[in-house]
Design goal:
This protein is an all-alpha fold and 127 residues long. The protein has one domain. Helix content is 66%, strand content 0%. The protein contains five helices and no strands. Helix 1 crosses helix 5 and helix 2 runs parallel beside helix 5. The radius of gyration is 18 Å and the shape is flat. The two termini are 18 Å apart. The model has no long low-confidence stretch (mean pLDDT 78).
Length: 127
Amino acid sequence: MRAPPLPVTGFLGALAYAGVVATFTPFTWPMRVAVALPMVSVVAAAVARGWHRQGSLEAAPVRTTGLATGLVLLALVGVFELALYVSAPRDEYPTMSSIAGEALGAWPVRAAAFLTWLGAGWYVVRR
C-alpha cells in the first residue's frame, strides 16, 4: 500500500503555517522570510531527490519542451508586469500584483492562497 501523497500531519502543519503567514503584512521582511523558507525547502527536496542529475548519462533524456514553454510564458508575464508598473497612471493600468493584493485582502483568502501555493510546491517535488 502506498503512503498518502500528503500525510495528515504535513497538511495540518502547512495549514497552520499558511494561517500564521497570512497575518504578516505584505512586502515586509517577515513575509519575505516566511515565503523564502518553503522555497528553499522545495529546492533542497528537489536536490535530495536527484533532480540535479537529470542530465547525466544514466538518466533518460530530459524533455525540455515544457520547460522552455514555461520559461517563455514566465518571461512574457514579467515583461507585461514591468510595462504596467512603469506606465502611468497606475489606477488605469494596475499591475497583476496590485490586483492580487486587493483580491487577497481578507485573511482567510490569503491563507487559502498561501496554502494552495505550498501545495503546488509539494506537488512539484513529489512528481
